Amino acid sequence: MSFSLREVEGVWKVAAGAAQACEVADLLVAVANDAVAVVSLESNSYLDEEWRTQQPSLIAAELGVPCRVHPLGSWASGTYGLGEELVLMDRDQLPRLLDDTLSPYELTLIDLPSDATPEQLDELALVLGTTGFDEPLLNRLEGSEVWFSGHDDCYVLLETRDPALPAAVLARLLALLAGSALGELTKAPTSRVPEPGSWLAERLIATGPHWIGVLGGVSEELVTIELAALPEPWRLGVPFPKRADLTATLDVRHGTWRIASAGWSNP
Asked: What are the start-end ranges of the E strands in 9-47?
């Protein structure tokens, strides 16, 4: 598990792993405007005759998700993070789109008012295609509260104006890691476990902006996650430090979490 947070001009930017888009969709819906636009989508779940991902509008149609399509044209297909169309849907339809049959390895979403005009959608695409990686995207847009980009079905990039969303994402990551450990232990499908209260994630964020976590002890009664604060965002290949700073422990029977200083170290 990894989590990194920084604030840029009033926008919260999160880089995290590991979570699938479907596993955080409800968190995005909770802070989004009335509508959500699927900006780009790549998946092996729905392929055309040439083994390319079908257009998002065709995938939505197969899943029975009501939507409207705003074509962008071929100019957008060569632009990172954009497809040839924007697919707009009611925000409550997002979990339905991201059902168990769709596993996107690249997915970009942004919320917007449901009455956005074609001109506003063209402007949205232009901003998405020209904003630098380190620039706060949302500050160049009016009426959008959250932007999500998922990669390899596990890495999350997120921008939001809502200061509570980063803590909610961190709490979800802890619950997902604990649930996967219990599922592996019991040889059952990944367990849905209770999430820690917002106080736990908020304490971690107040302590430091960059965290990495690994499983410690795992039993049917307790799951422990060892957490280490990093001086900068975690990158693929960076090992867990020799010493954990904190441990977050799930009491499976009572459904409660606690956090404590760690005395554990790697051999």
From this structure: 11-17, 35-43
**Helix/strand/coil percentages in the chain, nearest 5:** 30, 35, 40
State how far the Cα of 75 lies from the Cα of 248, in Å rounded to an integer.
48
CB atoms < 10 A from the CB of 243, how many?
12
List b or e across 169-202, with b for residues whose CB sees 16 or more CB atoms inside 10 angstroms.
Answer: bbbbbbbbbbbbbbeeeeeeeebebbbbeeebbe
CA distance 201 to 14: 13
Between helices 165-186 and 198-207, what is the axis angle to 10°? 110
| Tokens describing residue 150 | 């998922």
218: number of Cβ within 10 Å: 17
Mean pLDDT for 75-93 is 82
Give yes or no for residue 74 having a pLDDT over 50: yes
